[in-house]
Each structure stands twice: as C-alpha cells, then as structure tokens.
Amino acid sequence: MSPAPARQPTSVEISDAILARFLALHPKEIDLSLGRTQRLLADLGHPERAMPPAIQIAGTNGKGSTTAFLRAMLEASGRSVHVYTSPHLVRFHERIRLGAPGGGSYVDEDRLVATFDEVERVNAGREITLFEITTVAAMLLFARSPADVLLLEVGLGGRYDATNVIETALASVITPVSLDHQKFLGDDIAAIAHEKAGVLKSLTPAILARQEEAALVAIEREAARVAAPLSISGQDWQAREERGRLVFEDGDGLLDLPLPRLVGRHQIENAGAAIATLRALPALRIGADAIEAGLGAVNWPARMQRLATGRLPTLLPEGSELWLDGGHNPDGGRAVASTLAELDERSPKPIVMIVGMLNTKDSDGFLEAFAGLAGRVYCVPISSSTAARSVEEVAAAAERAGLAAEACATIDEALGKAARAAGSVPPRVLITGSLYLAGDALAANGTPPQ
Q: Which domains are assigned to the chain?
C-alpha cells in the first residue's frame, strides 16, 4: 500500500512562514528609518512612484476609524480605493485592501505569498524590519493594481515611518496626538507631535483633528517650515452632534448628516476629519450624498464593535451584551469609557471588563478611565503577542485604579466567570486593552474581519 501523499501547506501557512523569516532580518522589531525601505524600493524599480495618489493618515488615536470613514465615503462616490493599515487583527492580509469598482477586498493569500517571495528575493537577506519589508510588499501590490485613491495609514510616528517614503500626497491627516510609544517618539506631547508632523508635505493640504495645545503648536511649526496649508478642527472646521444628527461646518457651509454607524462620541471627530479632508480636495468631487452614504456604511472592526453573533456571546446569559474595542492608551481608555457611560445611561446593565495589555502600554493610565464605571475586571493573557503583560500585572494595575480584578487563563474562562457572577441580571461585557487581544477575541469568536 503506497503512503498517503504529504499534505501541502496552505497559502496562509506559507505566508506565516515568510513573515517569520522577515522577522529575523533585523535585530530590532522597531527601528525607525527610511533608508532600508528606500533601498529596497529602488531595487524594485520604485513602485511607490507608480501608486495611486495617496491620502496619508498619521496620529495616535483615531487613525483607523478616520481611514475607514474616508474609504466608505470615497467608495460611496464610486471611487476605487486601496487601503494600508496596521496592525492586523487576525490575519496579516487585513493590512492590505485592494480597490475595485463597487468596493475592494483584502489581498488574497496566494497573491500575498507571491509578492512576499519577490521582495524577499530582491532584499537578498539584508537587514530590514518586518514592518519595512511588508510595507514595500504592499506598495508593490498597490502599484500593480489600478485604483483612484490610496489611503496610507502611518504605522508608528510619521517622519521616519516606512510609509513616509512617498514624495507627494493628495493630503495629510493628523488625528489626535497623545502619549504613546514614548520610547521611540519622545517623552512629551510636543516631541511626539513633531514626529507625527513629519508626514506634512509642501503645498499639500493638511487636516488636523482636535489637538492638545502643545501638539498643535508643534504641528503648526512644522507646517510653516514646509509650507503645508492647515485646516484645523475648532478653527477652520468643526463636527458636532446636535439633536441626534452630525453637523459639519466649515468655510464652504454646513452639512446636516446622520450620526455615523461607528459607536461613540469620539467618532464624531473622526468622521469630521474625514469630511474635512474630502472637502479640502475639490477635484475629487465628493458630494454630500456620498458623505452621508459613507457614514451609514462605514465598518471598522474592534472599535466599539458589538459581537452579537459567533461563539463568544453564547457563553453569556440571554440579554447580555458583548462589546469589543482595541483601545490601549489613556486617551483611548477615556474615549471607550465615555462610550460605555453613554450606553449605560440609555440602557443600564452591570459593566464587566475583560482586559489584556502589552508591556509597552500605560496600563494604569488606561484603566483609570474606568474607575467607578466597571464592576469587575477579568484579566487575560494575549496569545498573539510576545510583548503581553502578565495577567497578574494587569490585575495589579486595575486594583491600583480602584477596580476589583481577577486573573483568568483565557477569554472563555473570563466570560464564564462573568456569566456566573451576573446571576439574574445580564451584564454588558467589554473586551479591551489591546488590538492584539481584539484579534484573539475575533478569532475565538469565529468572526474575523471580512
């Protein structure tokens, strides 16, 4: 009897193996520099110069949501849109969306593997970080696929982020800047904002969401240096909620719009930044109808996402709510806590949190936002990151914030304990603290981003 043929690896397994090889190409996971990226792009014939015109999005909080609003509005206008974001939640290919008439889709694994193979061969084993070489792969894909616009989200910082190899852009967007990644960007808001402002380009419209004063001063200084015209929230435009509507106002007039599909008051500002960007680009001719349609169609996983289907909600009592948010820094915590408070005001339920965090994040600052709001915190490990804090560390941070905390081995265990503790009153459960934990939750729920 002949032996059964060996199982061939799937495209997903192949791409994972290539990513593991990429990770070994440089001793540091993060090493902000443009030189290695520029060198590999030059060896590939400069695909970054053949990409569709780009809108580049930098900032600390709200980058992904603002990008999602931009995509939804552009696609509602009939444009095809490439999108580059990071990190991914479940599968790497979520970082690369290729535009097409009627709506784009994530790059398929076979095409991703072929592009990884090409950049790996041309790089020939030279030092380059994982983010740099995968950004080059994305740019190669974007250059080879026609689209009207590329939405290019900065990975970390701005000035020396691999995405900043582009020489021109349609517009630059800077979402709210706050303390995060101080090890790489600086110890205070002004220093971090200076690095974010490195994406600004001469004579290119720059749209600023609401900023702290120190951040605004730093960005204005850089904008003056490179002669980038600014459009600033609260000065040149504003977005606000009035009577259950989103009102956007700038020098060109007022738009009375429905509230965005994404939940939370902070999404008003993110939507406003997207609208201000499109209004600064009259050549695109994005009308009010497309903006309104985009607000209703926008989708961005793990940003106050309600998990109503899948496996995890079945672990809670009937009538419970399960929410997911990847917030992970103090400003993100305050935004999520504010949204939880709004939900509680409309429909009171006991609030329970399931939290996992990375050791590069301010756990105390994040969890302080939930003091007096959450009844209990179950702390869980993050299986998809080697930089996860131990559950004991997260529990200690929660207790310092005045929150009752308990360590759990898995999300399932935490949900089980929340269910047993609820008794006859179904709780509102929030899984939060990290985008990596959000990815673990979506994978466990069987509902990865589509």
A: 11-297 (3.40.1190.10), 305-445 (3.90.190.20)
